[in-house]
Amino acid sequence: MGQSHPPFAFSPAHRVEAALITDAAAPFCAVIGAGPAGLFAAEALARAGARVVVYEHKPSPARKFLMAGRGGLNITHTENLERFISRYGAAAKRIGPFVRAFPPQALRDFCAELGEATFVGTSGRVFPASFKASPLLRGWLARLARLGVTIASRHAFLGFAPDGALRLKGPEGEEFARPAGAVVLALGGASWPKLGSEGGWTLALNEAGVAVTPLSPANSGALVEWSSIFRADFEGQPIKTVLLRHGDATARGDMVVTRAGLEGGPVYALSARLREASATDGAATLFVDMRPDTSLACLTRKLSRRAPKQSHATFLKRSGFSRAEIGLLREARPEGLPRDAEALASLIKNAPLKVAGVAGLERAISTAGGVSFEEVDAELMLKKMPGVFVAGEMLDFDAPTGGYLLQAAFATGLAAGRGAARYLGLLSPAQTGLSPSHMPNSRAPAASNKYSV
C-alpha cells in the first residue's frame, strides 16, 4: 500500500529524567482530536510531564461524546471482563490487553474522581448519575486546564511534512508546520461527520504506506423498503421486546420503526452481519420474533381460541399485539396473514423482513475499519512512523453498543498516551497504573500561555 519507509524523519526523542523536567525542558506532544481517546491521552501525557496541545478542528471538544449523552450516556458495562472483551469479535485479542489494563471499574473510578458518580442499569450497562455527558466533560476539561493542557480549536490536521512535522490549518485558513516530539492521532472514525469525525485522515496515512481498512458504518439501522401505508402509519413507533435473528446470531431488545427501516439496540447488534450479507448478496433476511418469551406451542394454543368470523386485526389486538406489530406482520407477509393458528404463531415467532443494507456513515453510531493492528506495536505506535501513536475509533475494530466503544476509546487513549510518554523518555517501561492519576512522576503544571499555539 505504498512505501515501506515513508519520507518522514521522526527521530527518537531525547530522554529527559523526570526529576529534571522544567517547563522549558518538558518535551512537546501534540494530540490530534479532542474526543475521549484524545483527551485521555493528553491527560496521561501531561501527568507524565509533557507539554501538551490538543488540536481539534471543530469549535469545541468532544461533540460526539456530548451527542451520545443526550440519550443517557452509556459509559461502559459490568459483565465479566473476558465476556466483555469477547464483544470486540475479531479484534478482541488486540483490544483485550488495553481493556485489561484499564477495565470498566477503572473508568467508573475516573468518573467518580471528576465528581460524577455512576450506576448500573438493569441490563448491566453503566451510566453517569446525571444521565448526561456535559457535567463529566466540564469537570474533565477543568482538570486538563489545571494540568496545563491547551485545546486549540478550529485547527485541522493536514498530515505530515517530509521532516515529520505536523501540518495543520489554523482558524483563519492559514497552513503551518508544527514540530513535535511525539504525536497521538485520535481523529475518530467517520460516523456522524457533522460532529467532527470525517475520516479524512485515511488519505494522509495511506500516503505514508500505513494499511487502513476502508471505513464503513457500524451500529447502524437496517434499511427496509416499507409499504407507503406502513411508513405513514408507524414511522417513529416502538416495537418492544423482540428477538432478532440473522443466521446463527441473535439480539434482543426494543426497536423503532423509521422512515428508512429499523433502528434500536438489537438492530445495531446485528448490523455488521447485515452489512456484510447485503454487500455480498444484495440483500439480507432479518427474522423477528415478536414474542421471544412465549414458546411456539403456547402461542399456538392461545391463537387457536378465535371466533370464526373475527378479523385478524381485531383478534390480534385482543391478543395483546400493538398496531405496529400487526402492521409489521403484514409487511413480512404481504399476501395476507394465515388464519391457521400454528401458521400464524410461526409467523409471529419468525417474521421475515428483507433488508436492503444498513444506514450510511451519516447515521451510523460508530465506524468499522481503520488502522490495521498489524501497523502498530504493543503501545499503539505506528511501526512506519516512529513517534506517532493511534488511539480510539481510528483503529480497526468494531464495538457493539452497550458501553464497549467508549471503554475502548478510553483504554486505547491511555495506552497511546503512556506509549508516547515512554517514547519521550518521561516514563520507564515498568511504570503503569490503572488511570492517569495513578501514574508515577505525575505533575500538574499551572496553565500557561506558553503551551498555546
From TrEMBL:
Under InterPro entries, the record lists: BaiN-like, BaiN-like_dom_sf, FAD/NAD-bd_sf, Flavoprotein_PP4765, RsdA/BaiN/AoA(So)-like_dom, RsdA/BaiN/AoA(So)_Rossmann
Keywords annotated in UniProt: FAD, Flavoprotein
- Going by the entry's taxonomy, the superkingdom of the source organism is recorded as Bacteria
* PANTHER family on file: BLR3961 PROTEIN, OS12G0638800 PROTEIN
Record carries keyword Flavoprotein? yes
Name of one Pfam family that matches? HI0933_like_1st
Region Disordered, annotated ranges: 433-453
| Cofactor needs | FAD
The answer to whether the entry has keyword Glycoprotein is: no
**What are the RsdA/BaiN/AoA(So)-like Rossmann fold-like domain coordinates in residue numbering?**
30-418
In its UniProt entry, the species of origin is given as: Methylocystis parvus
Q: Which residues form the RsdA/BaiN/AoA(So)-like insert domain?
A: 217-366
Q: What is this protein called?
A: TIGR03862 family flavoprotein
